[in-house]
Amino acid sequence: MSVPTLAADQSVCAPLPVLGRDVSVPLVTGGTVTYAALDYAASAPALQRVWDDVAAYAPYYGSVHRGAGYLSQLSTDLFENARKTVAAFLDCREEDQVVFTRSTTDSLNLLAAALPADCQVFVFETEHHASLLPWRDARVTVLDAPRTPQQAVGTLERALADRDPHGPALVCVTGASNVTGELWPVRELAEAAHAHGARVVLDAAQLAPHHPVSVRDLGVDWVAFSGHKLYAPFGSGVLAGRADWLRAAEPYLAGGGASRRVTRRTDGGVDVDWHESAARHEAGSPNVIGAYSIASACKSLTEAGFDTLVAREQYLVRRVREGLAGIPEVKVLSLFGDDAPRVGVLSFVVEGWNSSHFAAALSAEYGIGVRDGLFCAHPLVRTLLGGDPGTQGECGAPEAAPGERSLNAIRVSFGAGTPDEHVERFVRAVGELVRDGARWTYRTEDGRCVPAV
Ligand SMILES: Cc1ncc(COP(=O)(O)O)c(C=O)c1O
């Protein structure tokens, strides 16, 4: 059968070509400028190659798994091959399963629904809400924010030492923080967990797009990530790892695709024989384009070479850090210290500025897209900001009320598609706004700052 293959080797430029790289946006001060997408941590632009692969496949699109036709079989092959590509990308063990989900949030909720009875869960308060919240039906221990990677390991070890050693336990750790970009000591945390009979799920939503992730090397039991942060924004995510808990659990969703055989009982009820493969947790029609696009992104990043990608991204990180370090009013947020290794994600506050106002000015006056707020990691951001709203300024009239809204930060994030010019423009814009102030007037609308027209 002739299956369209993922596009063959292409010359890898730095940065990698992404969609939207030539899009112009209007400036409130007049004229237009090329959009500088610096919100990769929320959603990264699609890699051009991912888009091309999806476009090449689109005419061959067909129903997956149950169709008898040629295109159905072809699509089924692509879907199942996508699992193999993801397994290779994550350096999974032979026996691991790759389940396609909608996102990291979905993956972690799936695992939460598959926990064995009486499972204890350990999670740091610093996690993204997607990692912090799904375990509420389990016995959860929320660990205080550590201030060094060693403290993180020590805190986890102490908590695990106190646990009931007989029942199952799970530790949920993030690979790279979505707020500070800092790398967490995943291998050491996994060793500590295993030494105490606990398993580990790695939230790699922010790690996988920036860094190679090896399940074997890190020694984690599961990995979760999202396609839309990995340059494949077609609505799919991944949960990969040990099959036993997944196989023993009730299907995440009940329905077709997850069931192997369904029969009526003599008492009128229905008996179901569920699949034991990944399909058990993929009921409903699979998102074949989502899975295929993730596989394309995995191949693209692997072929571009993480050594090259990391080196380039670290150059951009240094450029941003040095630029911001030269502006005394800017405070970059950090849990593990200013020199802690991090991916291309940095959050900061600017003395005298409301973060929403600052982010609005970056957008309206410079065409730079960043993010402001608490980044779905409220406990972490509050810890980092020390809970002090006193340094925030007003956005315009009416003044933003102090409290939740003004207690926020600005996040800049970038990756494989980011040209130097975007970070240069960003550093220059931050300096100019701090020195000269905004050139436009802004007002508060629905709790956000927007240009007053
Ligand atoms: C560290 C981390 N984990 C999980 C998530 C949730 O990802 P998604 O919204 O794709 O489910 C995010 C999203 O920003 C994240 O940064």
Tell me about this structure.
The protein has 453 residues and is an alpha/beta fold. It has 2 domains: 169 residues, Aspartate Aminotransferase, domain 1; 253 residues, Type I PLP-dependent aspartate aminotransferase-like (Major domain) (Aspartate Aminotransferase, domain 2, 3-Layer(aba) Sandwich). It contains 13 helices and 19 strands. The chain has a 7-stranded mixed β-sheet, with helices on both faces. A 4-stranded antiparallel β-sheet has the order 13-14-17-16, with helices on one face. A two-stranded antiparallel sheet has the order 1-2. A hairpin with a 5-residue loop joins β11 and β12. α1 crosses α9, α2 packs across α9 and α5 packs parallel to α6. It is globular. The N and C termini lie far apart (59 Å). The relative contact order is 0.16. The N terminus is likely disordered.
